[in-house]
Every structure is written in structure tokens, then in C-alpha cells.
């Protein structure tokens, strides 16, 4: 099974994709994670992407489509969860071609329906352990002991450079202008399934499970 999780920044795509990977063995293909990895390693793609991401704008279609193409075969057996891709009409066409070439099809496009204003707080409040990557949130999920990671005991934490209010608003605007317009493309193909992304994480997960098991 191959699915897309679609929704604005902070809608919960990464949270649900990680859960599906852990519970169902599907492979999470997150272009955001791939790009952050490239930036951290200082690869040529990372050098090009860094400033664009920090401004909250979209990296070029050619770069992200190539990243997905390089990793798609690794999900042939277990199925892919596309997280943060496609984000433009060109990327949607590129994905269709990449899947076609491999004799694979798209089963569902799951739209996380959310209230954008509430998402700003979700995003600007999140941080992760700098050592093991465990996610936290300054109001929704604090460490049990202040300043100490619950999992590995580290006292070092980090926040994404694009998780500040101004950049989040640019990311939202990019979503409305370039990503939301691809919804009708999938609607016409009968692939869109909608879930309430404002429900608690476990309830969102249950809605997604119901779609995948239907
Ligand atoms: P990317 O990494 O894809 O970021 P994003 O789409 O902005 O999404 P986020 O990771 O911020 O949010 P999410 O929906 O995954 O939510 P999460 O589960 O983390 O992209 C970053 C940048 O890379 C882009 O701006 C662009 O520059 C570039 N890029 C990436 N892909 C690209 C592409 N295809 N084309 C061009 N450029 C690209 O949850 C958010 C928070 O909410 C967490 O704290 C979480 O714990 C919490 N939470 C989640 N669900 C719930 C819930 N149901 N209730 C309460 N809290 C919840």
C-alpha cells in the first residue's frame, strides 16, 4: 500500500507517519527529513536548500522529486508513506510517473483537516532532544523532569530553525498557494480521504487505521 499524508505545516503528518512505520512496517518518506539531513551533512543539495527552508519557502521540484526517486525502491515491499511530498502540481505529476515506472499505485491520499491558527502554537512550541531526537512540546508534552530527556537523560535540546512564528506563517501561505491546489487532482481520481487532524493523536491514528483497513 502506498499513501500520501497531506496537510499544512504542523498538521501531524510526521507524527502519524512515524506511527504507521512503527506499527505497520510501512516506510516513511519525508522530504523534510531528507532535506534536513542534507543540510546537516552539508551536501550540495543541503547547501542549496538551507536558506530556502529557513525562509519557509519550497525547495525546487527537481531536487525533492530526485530525493524521493532515490529512496522509493527501498519501500517496494512494505509500502510507502509520503510525508510532505508532493507539495506542488509538478511534484504530484512526478510522483505519478515514479510510481508508474515501477508498476506501483497510490492507494489513498489522506488529508489531515486542521485549524491553521491552532497549528502555529503546535509548531513554535515543539523541540526535540539533541541526542536521541525524542519530540517534546513546551505546553503539550514537557519532559517529566525539567530540562532532562525522559528517554536518554540528555540535557541538550534543539528546535528547528524554521519553527518560529514568522517562518511558520510563510510555510502556511506556501501550503495554501501551492499545495492545497493539488487536492482536486486527487479528488478527481477518487483518492482523497479526510480525517479530523484536530483530534488527539490517538484518535487521528484510529481514523487513519480505519481507512487503511477498509
Ligand atoms: P517538513 O519537514 O515537511 O515540514 P512541514 O510540512 O512544515 O510539516 P511539519 O514537520 O512542521 O509538521 P507535521 O505535519 O509533520 O506535524 P508534526 O507531526 O511534526 O518541511 C520543512 C521544509 O522543507 C519546508 O518548509 C520546505 O522548505 C522543505 N520541503 C519539504 N518537503 C518539500 C517538498 N516536497 N517540496 C519543496 N520543499 C519541501 O506535528 C507538529 C506538532 O504537533 C508536534 O509537536 C506534534 O507532537 C504535535 N501534534 C501532532 N499531532 C497532534 C494532535 N493530533 N494533537 C496535538 N498535537 C499534535
Descriptive report:
With 214 residues, this protein is of the alpha/beta class. The protein contains 9 helices and 8 strands. Strands 2-3-1-4-8 form a 5-stranded parallel sheet, sandwiched between helices. A 3-stranded antiparallel sheet has the order 6-5-7. A hairpin with a 5-residue loop joins strand 5 and strand 6. Helix 2 crosses helix 3 and helix 4 packs parallel to helix 5. The two termini are 12 Å apart. Bound molecules: BIS(adenosine)-5'-pentaphosphate (AP5). BIS(adenosine)-5'-pentaphosphate binds next to helix 1, helix 2, helix 3, helix 6 and strand 6.
Q: Topology of this structure?
A:
Layout: E1 3-6, H1 13-24, E2 27-30, H2 31-41, H3 44-55, H4 61-72, E3 80-83, H5 89-101, E4 108-113, H6 116-124, E5 126-129, E6 135-137, E7 157-158, H7 165-179, H8 183-188, E8 192-196, H9 201-213
Parallel strand pairs: 1-3, 1-4, 2-3, 4-8
Antiparallel strand pairs: 5-6, 5-7
Helix pairs in contact: 2-3, 4-5, 6-7
The chain binds BIS(adenosine)-5'-pentaphosphate.
SS field, number of helical segments:
9
Shape: globular
Helix content: 40-55%
Q: Which value, in Å, is the CA radius of gyration?
A: 17 Å
Q: Can you tag this structure with a few keywords?
A:
single chain, 214 residues, alpha/beta, 5-stranded parallel beta sheet, binds BIS(adenosine)-5'-pentaphosphate
Amino acid at each position: 500500500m502506498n499513501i500520501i499524508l497531506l496537510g499544512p505545516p504542523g498538521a501531524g503528518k510526521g507524527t502519524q507517519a512515524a506511527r504507521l512505520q512503527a506499527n505497520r512496517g510501512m516506510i516513511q518518506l519525508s522530504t523534510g527529513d531528507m532535506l534536513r539531513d542534507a543540510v546537516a551533512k552539508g551536501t550540495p543539495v543541503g547547501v542549496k536548500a538551507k536558506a530556502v527552508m529557513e525562509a519557509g519557502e519550497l525547495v525546487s521540484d527537481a531536487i525533492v522529486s530526485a530525493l524521493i526517486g532515490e529512496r522509493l525502491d527501498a519501500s517496494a515491499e512494505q509500502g510507502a508513506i509520503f510525508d510532505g511530498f508532493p507539495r506542488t502540481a509538478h511534484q504530484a505529476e512526478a510522483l505519478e510517473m515514479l510510481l508508474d515506472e515501477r508498476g506501483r499505485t497510490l492507494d489513498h491520499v489522506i488529508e489531515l483537516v486542521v485549524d491553521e491558527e491552532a497549528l502555529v502554537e503546535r509548531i513554535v512550541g515543539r523541540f526535540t532532544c539533541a541526542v536521541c531526537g525524542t519530540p517534546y512540546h513546551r505546553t503539550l508534552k514537557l519532559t517529566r523532569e525539567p530540562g532532562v530527556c525522559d528517554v536518554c537523560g540528555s540535557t541538550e535540546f534543539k528546535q528547528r530553525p524554521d519553527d518560529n512564528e514568522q517562518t511558520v506563517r510563510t510555510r502556511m501561505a506556501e501550503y495554501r498557494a501551492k499545495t492545497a491546489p493539488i487536492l482536486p487532482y486527487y479528488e478527481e481520481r477518487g483518492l482523497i480521504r479526510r480525517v479530523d487532524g484536530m483530534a488527539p493523536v490517538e484518535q487521528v491514528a484510529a481514523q487513519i487505521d480505519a481507512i487503511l483497513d477498509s
